[in-house]
Amino acid sequence: MTLSFPRLLAGCLVLCTHWALAADGVSPRQILIGQNITLQGGKNDYGKAVQDGIQTYLQAVNARGGVNGRQVVLQTLDDDNQSTKAEANARQLVGQDKVFILFGSIEGGPSTAVMKAAVDLNVPFFGPIAGSPTLRRPHQPLVFPVRTEHREEFRALLDYAKKTGTTRVAFVRSDSETGLQHLETVRLLCRDLGMELVADLPFKSDVSDVQIGQMAQRIAATNAQVVINHGGAGVYERLIRQARKQGVRATFSGVNSGSTQLAKNLGELAHGMVFSQVVPSPWERKTSITREYQEEFARLKPGQEFSYGSLEGYLTAKALIAALRLAGNEPTRDSFVRGLHNAGSIDLNGLRASYLPGSHTGLTLVDLAIVTRDGKFRH
Questions:
Q1: For every residue of 245-275, which 3-state class applies, written as one string?
Q2: Which strands, in side-by-side order, build the sheet including 71-78?
Q3: Looking at beta carbons, which pairs linking 3-9 to residues 24 or more positions away fall under 8 Å?
Q4: φ and ψ at 49, to 5 degrees?
Q5: pTM of the predicted protein model
Q6: Can you spell out the DSSP letters for 149-178?
Q7: pLDDT digits (tens, 9 = 90+) for 172-183
Q8: 166 phi and psi, to 5 degrees?
Q9: Residue 346 to residues 53, 136, 197, 277, 289: CA-CA distances in angstroms?
Q10: How far is CA 19 from the centre of its chain?
């Protein structure tokens, strides 16, 4: 049967109208997701671990047909752990590369910078792997964190320290707006727990060895009994080494970011350190999500070690795929947000991330793990 010219023209107009209305980043065969992440050209071990976990889950999903027949493709830019570059990357991904949504940065400063671009450009930002308060407070309608925020990690670490007889606290943080917000949170938590914040230790990304030494001296001079940190695993490692050389006796505890790499690099110096964790143990098989992660990661990344970073990346990618499915067969940015709100939460094989209008909580899991003499984490 041959089509008449008017019917053929009408069909073309319908097709053209469909393409004109298609969302950026969405084609019949793929969904293009924009990712800014701190890799530092492969030098950031934590960023690399997170990316390995993300790639593992996306590779497995794409091999099974993707999302509604579309392959999920990452367009990834490296911010080199610089907030200004992170924001520029986010704007390039949306404005030039025409991605569907923004996804999966790490570290508080860069993640907050990506959020700024996302809000300005009216584009959803899903799965920032950071614990910054700005990602949740005030409520950001377009930002959907998956992991628990640092506030709950600080609370768990300080509560544990108080129960072990510690009252004097030093806080290591980035010298930034985000770091100041974390400082205020730690002050309030210390007050509520009857503890005293005796040393605020801000640092820049280019902090020198001399400055690190001065930070260690301040810990000793203030008689701090426990030190906790806000990210900056590389800087924290340098501080711990310098403090131990100076004979500082304070206990060092840490948030989850880069904890696997930090403990490995410190070796014996990490023994007895307590870390807050926002995912289950990646080495144990006590949870369904961990068993799933271990099987897929061992299959697709043979020879690579399990880590908190890769499990967190895997979990975040799993949440992304669930959110994309909720957006429907012809996803738009509006349907992406609406799908999450209508569902209320996402089941991540036993863990549940909550996304309600006015409250994008994500996960609430916080656990503590101590580093044993053989360098392993015991929850």
A1: HCCCCCEEEECCCCHHHHHHHHHHHHCCCEE
A2: 71-78, 30-37, 102-103, 125-126, 143-144
A3: none
A4: -65, -45
A5: 0.88
A6: PHHHHHHHHHHHHHHTT--EEEEEEESSHH
A7: 999 988 899 999
A8: -95, 140
A9: 19, 18, 38, 20, 13
A10: 34
